[in-house]
Fold this protein.
Amino acid sequence: MNDDPILAARGLTLSFGVIPALLNVDMELYLGEILAIVGESGSGKTTLLNVLSGLLRPQSGTVTYRDPDGVTHDVHGMPAPMLRTLQRSDWGFVHQDPRRSLRMNVSAGGNVGERLMAQGARHYGDIRAQALDWLEQVEIDADRIDDLPRTFSGGMLQRLQIARTLVTHPRLVFMDEPTGGLDVSVQARLLDLIRSLVARLGVAVVLVTHDIAVARLLGHRIAVMQRGRIVETGLTDQVLDDPRHPYTQLLVSSVLQA
Amino acid sequence: MSVPLLRTEGLTKSFTLHLRGGLRLPVLGGIDLSVEAGQCIVLSGPSGAGKSTLLRTLYGNYRADGGKILVQHQGRIVDIAGADPRTILAVRHSTIGYVSQFLRVVPRVPALDIVAEALIGRGPSPGEAREQAASMLLSLNIPRRLHGIPPATFSGGEQQRINLARGFIAGHPILLLDEPTASLDADNRAVVVRMIQDAKASGTAIVAICHDVDVRDQIADRLFEVAPYQEAA
C-alpha cells in the first residue's frame, strides 16, 4: 500500500506576469516521509507549497492526492467544499507565522480543540483531555491551557500551532519555514519535536525551508529549487554531501560552519 | 566459500566541481571488492587515495558514476548504485550500518536517546531500547552520569564512542567503519576491537578504514588496496 505516493505533482507551471514561479515541476511524496524543499527566496518554494496544498491553482499540470481508501483525487479538480474538508482533516498546515493559523482571541486549549470540533467532536471532556494531551506533547505546561496565545512566546506559539495541526492526526502536513524567525535554542528543540512526532505518527510532510541544516536534520529526501525549477532531487545526505548541480554546489558551499 | 554480503563490480566515482570551472576529479576507477559474512576487510592506501569516498559510496552517501554495488538485502540482491532513495533508506534501516568519523546529531538530544533511537522500529519498546542503549554505552565506558546529556560538549573520544554505540546497537549484517578508533585511548581501543571481533563472530561483514596498525592487525582478515586514481594512458 505504501508503494503509491500519497501526493504527486506532474508538470506544474505557474507564472506571475512574466516571472516564472514554477516551471514544469514534478514531485512525489510517500507516507512516513519528509520531503524538504530548499532554495533561495524567490526560487518558488512557497509557491510550490501553495499549489500542492490547493491554495493556488497552477496554469498547467496536476496535483493528485491519494486518500486512505486508495482513491486518488485531482486536488485542483475537486469541488471546493471537498478540498476544504481535506484541508481541515486529512491535511495540516504549519506556517512560519503561527498567527496565520491560530486564533489569538481563543485560549490555547480552544485552539487545539477547535480543529477536533471541526471534525465533529462534541464531547467537551474528551476535547479538553485531548487538547491537554497535545499541549503536553509539544511541551506546553498544562496550566497554560486557558491562557490566550498572545501571552505566549514565539517558540510556544509555534508549538501550539503544531499541536493544533497534529491533533486531528492528519496524513499529510505542509510546513513553511516552521523554525524561521525563532532563536536557535528554541529552534533546536522544535526540530527534535517535529522529527519525533512525524516519526511516531507516520505522516507525510512537505517542508519548505531556506535553511540547509534544517533540511539535513529533518528531510528524508530533498528537492533543490532555483528559478521555479527543481534542479536536483534525491536522498538528503546524497544531495548535500555529493551535490551535482552547480546551484546545489553553490548552496552547500555557502553554508556557514558554526 | 559462502556468498558475499556486499560486492562491487567495476565501481567508478568522480567529482565535478562546477564552482571551479567544471574541474573533474576522478577518484575511484573500477573497484571490485567483496566481503563475506564474518569477514572484515580493511581499506589501505595513502591519504587522499579515496578510501573514505569508497566507504561513503558503498553506503549510498556518494553517488556512483558507474558499476554495481550488490548487497544481500532481506533475501534478495539490491544494487545500491542507482537505487532510488526509498530503497537506499530501507537498506540502511535493516542491512547496512555506517559509523562516520564524526558524530552529527540533532542538537540538545541526550546521548542515551541518540543511541536508543537506532533501535526504534526494530522491535524493542522505547523502554527496552533505552535499557539496551544504556548497557551499550556502559560497555564503551560512557558513565551513566553522561547518558542524559547531549554530546555536543563531550570530548572527541566520547563522541566517537556515542557514534560507535549508535552504529553497533542495531546489529546490521553489514557495517562500514570509518576510523573507528582514531580518537580513543588504549583501553577504549581494546573495547572497540572486541566489539568488532564479536560482530564478526556473529556473522557481520565489515569494511573498515583504520590507520592504527595494531588495531588493523587484530580485526582485518584481508587488506584491500585503494590506489590513487590514475587515468589510463
About this structure: Chain A has nine helices and ten strands. The first strand of chain A starts at residue 7 and ends at 16. Residues 184-201 of chain A form the longest helix (18 residues). Chain A touches chain B at residues 30, 33, 185, 188-189, 191-192, 195, 199, 217, 220-221, 234-235, 237-238, 241-242, 244-246, 249-250, 253 (CB under 8 Å).
